[in-house]
Write a structure and sequence with these properties.
Blueprint lengths: L2 H19 L6 H8 L3 H7 L3 H30 L4 H14 L7 H13 L3 H25 L5 H20 L1 H12 L5 H17 L13
Helix pairs in contact: 1-2, 1-4, 1-6, 4-5, 4-7, 5-10, 6-8, 8-10
Length: 217
């Protein structure tokens, strides 16, 4: 078997197991058993479990960031970009770059796990390798929402990302519910069309009056 086939098999297996069981709960022994390779192959191609986790993310994020940076460059050159245009560009890029094995929902589940599980190295890795792209997007978002305080924009970005990650990672279940309850067959493009106005309005909502520190629980 060619080396590239072995690497792909390891990555496909690791991706599926990480999404199903989590990073900490998935051992290299389980991955090698499912992938039908020996531990030496994983060590040779990746060196460690940490590097394998990072490689799983890089398969999606490398092409995503390459394409998204191209899109952002076009928006920056044009100027006068609206919030709707910026978020539509993000959504279009997200669904046009396929996850490694064809399942965007699996990758979104992994992305959520990277932030909810105790994987400090993953947060550092994402910041070091993809933080520049996120900062570029954040700058455009700031231009589109000049009246939002920086701290409020921070929270709204993460509320938005949380909504997207939850919806996309639960895509199969939500499609089943929509079909069983409403006889509706939902495509990813349909879902994005529905989600965009929701997150756009959320980003533009009035800033709430927060309780004073002495009033907080």
């Amino acid at each position: 078997m060619a080396q590239s086939d072995t690497v792909t098999r390891i990555l496909d297996t690791a991706e599926a197991l990480f999404a199903e069981k989590g990073f900490a709960e998935t051992s290299l022994r389980t991955i090698t058993s499912k992938a039908k390779v020996n531990l030496a192959a994983v060590n040779y191609h990746f060196g460690s479990k940490k590097a394998l986790i990072q490689a799983v993310f890089a398969r999606y994020l490398d092409p995503f960031c390459e394409q998204f940076n191209t899109e952002l460059a076009a928006l920056e050159k044009r100027g006068g970009v609206t919030l709707e245009e910026l978020l539509e560009t993000l959504a279009r890029t997200t669904i046009s770059v396929p996850a490694s094995k064809g399942s965007l929902s699996v990758f979104m589940r992994l992305l959520g796990l990277a932030y909810t599980q105790a994987q400090g190295h993953m947060r550092r890795y994402l910041q070091e390798h993809y933080g520049q792209t996120f900062a570029r997007f954040s700058q455009q978002l700031k231009l589109c929402t000049p009246d939002l305080p920086d701290a409020e924009r921070f929270w709204r970005i993460h509320f938005m990302l949380g909504s997207v990650v939850f919806t996309m990672s639960s895509l199969d279940a939500l499609r089943d519910i929509a079909y069983n309850d409403y006889a509706e067959k939902t495509r990813i493009k349909d879902l994005v069309a529905r989600m965009l106005p929701v997150v756009t309005v959320a980003m533009q909502a009035p800033v709430p009056e927060l309780p004073l520190p002495s009033e907080s629980a």
